[in-house]
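Worked Example 4.2. Read the sequence first, then its structure tokens.
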Amino acid sequence: MTDSVLPDPDASRAAAPRVPFSLLDLAQVGAGETVAESLAHSRRMAQFADQTGYERIWYAEHHNMPAIASAAPAVLVAHMAAHTSRIRLGSGGVMLPNHSPLAIAEQYGTLAELYPGRIDLGLGRAPGGDHATFTALRRTPSDAENFPADVVELQRYFAGTPVHGVIATPGSGTHVPLYILGSSLFGAQLAAALGLPYAFASHFAPQALEQAISLYLRDFRPAPTRDGGETAPHVMAAATVIADDDADRAHEQLRQAKIHRIKFLFNRGRNMTTAEAEALLDGPQGAQVDEMLRLAAVGTPDDVLAQLDRFAQRIGADELILAPLAGDRDVWFGTVEKLAPPAR
């Protein structure tokens, strides 16, 4: 991995993609890394993305996962915004059932006041953790049932409308853009009903992708905008990516990622060895992981760009949000470098 932030221009690179590229950073804590080292890698990636043509970077709320350091997306957004100047930053997403809408309005309203025009708020209704996480957060699984009403409450806070006599300060009048995240038809229905952009988690749950997008586009109801216009549908899709000049190295990184995911999903309270996880690759557990990563774009940079272009065209995406998966930090950062859209 080089020390420079920007790579030398490569005139032989494949044609620019038809849709904008963004990044989903899970703030993965690699083997042998500390959390501080992981976040330093995330900062370096944000600074590179800021100087190239990526649209936005999002951080996903995860709890009780030692290998993921994105438990507090608002804190990461604030840190990365302070070290960048152009790129949009936000959550992909905040798991709203874990929080009161007022608290989120105040957090992201503060960010919007500090970094105007650069803050997004992606919202999901999954817990972002296990049952123990719910208990520790003083929440219950039934809180997810309030998700649609909580989204509307957030909209009211950002618009400056009092809710139960309370005005979000900061937050009021910031009109932070909201995005609905999902991996099922529920999120598509809600985004369509509210006239909001929709982001599908196809990087780990591709099963309902086409059906959800079709439903979203069919049922979309435009919402009024501040300038007197109306919102239009906006489809984002997430894609796992691993790009390297050595295609075999890229595919080996995908294999290692599958082994890591088998350990995470099927550990069952014990420390599964790498050999044990490898033995499951050809079984039902491996098939489940294969399905999760079915839409991964892996190979040389030109091959990956071509795969992403076909994917975006096939589903009618307006934007792709890329999730670099390689455990090797050189390949991980190299993926972001090699797929970067031209600087603006």
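Now turn to a second chain, presented in exactly the same format:
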Amino acid sequence: MALTPAAGGGESSTSPMPFQTPGPVNAEVQWDGFDPQTYVRHNYADLRADDREFLRRTRDFFAGAKLSEARCVDVGSGANLYPTLSLLPFAHTVDLCEWSAANVCWLRQQVDSYDPMWDPYWQVCAEHPAYAALTDPRRRLARVARVSQTSVFDLPRHAWDAGTMFFVACSISADRAESAHAIARFLRALRPGSPFAVAVMLGSAGYRVGEHSFPAVALARAEVVAGIAAGAYDVEVHEERPRPPLRDGYASMLLTTGRTRG
């Protein structure tokens, strides 16, 4: 199994897709061949309007959750730091759980002192007073972050107080059941009442990183929201239709926030 990196982009539909061509399940994908440097250059070298809006909304949600010294988790961190940055001011610890060995190596380098390309993402966070009060985010991340090679399917139960999972459930395999299972395991890993943010691509037809193709599930908005609502309350949903799109093969991306039922 692998936790794929986050991707800026997605697609939308109001009903589940009637059929999907069979493709590889998570365990069949060579995740250690993922190239985080290529992925980051394509997806995050420039702060896109869709990622800015997702980060802004996630920032405001966690700032309003009244967290303090929380045990936090970012699941499927991959080659994306901005979900972790959204947790930083409120975290006693942040566990970055990722399966690809290449991405784990990249993450460990970044948490020691992250690349300046992430500074614009932190500047979006710092537009809120709760984040602006944290004047040295690099030092804070190096102190609280813990990177581990961990599968979403092996997350412990009720281990964290807040969490993020960005663009993972849609892009870890071509199996719809694995997508639904990933969402359920993420929510179960949080304690009852914990605030969370989940982002997915909708209608994704898969994606490429350099010379390698990786699978995806063409998720629909209704099925994602229903799956999250089964384990959460106070659920809010926001959809972005990127123009221009980040890549071919999707139409929108979905951000869902709420609190876990436990």
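Notes for the reader: The radius of gyration is 16 Å. The beta strands are 70-75, 91-98, 145-149, 162-166, 195-202, 207-209, 212-214, 232-240, 252-260.
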